[in-house]
Design goal:
about 280 residues, alpha/beta, Rossmann fold, 7 strands
């Protein structure tokens, strides 16, 4: 362990096993936040639950004013109510991110309320059902592309416009390990997540000289409501799911959120066009 000249007590709760309650360990390890995004305005999509909810809470804890966007605006309101109860600055907004009018209105809300947009975490997305490539209905393909790729393009289109005019800003897009390797049985998901990395790199190069950074994170299998629903409380299913994760157990939404906050912070000032795996060493590329 590193030297501790200030004799700061170790905040890690005694008795916790590694991989047992990772979210609690992460929170305990950082009892005092650093203010990584202090004074910034941050827009988070898919903020009602899972990784997006964790990100909304963490951006607020690190000092940002948060615009929590979700199609389920009532659930987003519940999240921001808790953020405000802890002294954070946040507001909720409902939007269908596949609808360009809704996306444009979302950005306008940010500007009308805060006058600028410092960072955005384009996290909203869906999973999809496994199936044979040749049996995939066109409607399911189109829905996946619309929600997981076109929505990211639309968000970036308007976020970049504001940030380029400001001369500063940071965007983080949520891709996946399926953005760099194939996910057999999920050709539509694989295509969408590969596409997110492609447009991330394009935007990073085009807008670097304008003071805007654009990066992507590739979350591994994380304890979100979707995964919890699949596991359904069965420890055997959880073991099966965890077997494919390098470290041997599920990621927590808060762990993914930490990466998004860092990439949006000034600590990552020379990082743009990157694709950061946050997956417990699952996909090695």
């Amino acid at each position: 362990m590193a030297d501790n000249p200030q004799n700061i007590p170790d905040p890690t709760p005694a008795g916790l096993q590694l991989g047992d309650q990772t979210a609690e360990l992460v929170r305990a390890a950082f009892p005092l936040r650093l203010g990584l995004v202090e004074g910034k305005v941050a827009l988070i999509t898919g903020a009602a639950r899972g990784i997006g909810e964790a990100a909304a809470r963490l951006f607020a804890a690190e000092g940002a004013a948060v615009i929590a966007v979700d199609k389920d605006v009532a659930a987003a309101e519940a999240v921001i109510k808790e953020i405000r109860a802890r002294g954070g600055e946040a507001m909720a907004h409902g939007a269908d991110l596949t609808n360009e009018h809704d996306v444009e209105a979302m950005i306008r809300v940010a500007i009308d309320n805060y006058g600028r947009l410092d960072c955005a975490f384009n996290n909203a997305g869906i999973s999809g059902r496994f199936g044979s490539f040749i049996d995939l209905p066109l409607a399911e393909w189109q829905q996946m592309i619309d929600v997981n790729l076109t929505s990211v393009f639309l968000c970036m289109k308007y976020e970049l416009g504001v940030m380029a005019a400001q001369g500063f800003g940071a965007i983080v897009n949520a891709s996946s390990g399926a953005g760099v390797v194939a996910a057999p049985g999920l050709p539509h998901y694989t295509a969408a997540k590969h596409g997110v990395l492609g447009i991330t790199k394009c935007a990073a190069q085009e807008f670097a000289a304008k003071g805007v950074r654009v990066n992507a994170i590739l979350p591994g299998t994380t304890r979100t409501p979707m995964i919890e629903g699949f596991i359904n409380g069965d420890p055997n299913i959880e073991k099966m799911v965890s077997r494919g994760i390098g470290r041997g157990y599920l990621g927590e939404p808060s762990e993914i959120a930490e990466a998004a906050v860092w990439l949006c912070s000034d600590r990552a000032s020379f990082v743009s066009g990157a694709s950061l795996s946050v997956d417990g060493s699952t996909v090695n590329r």
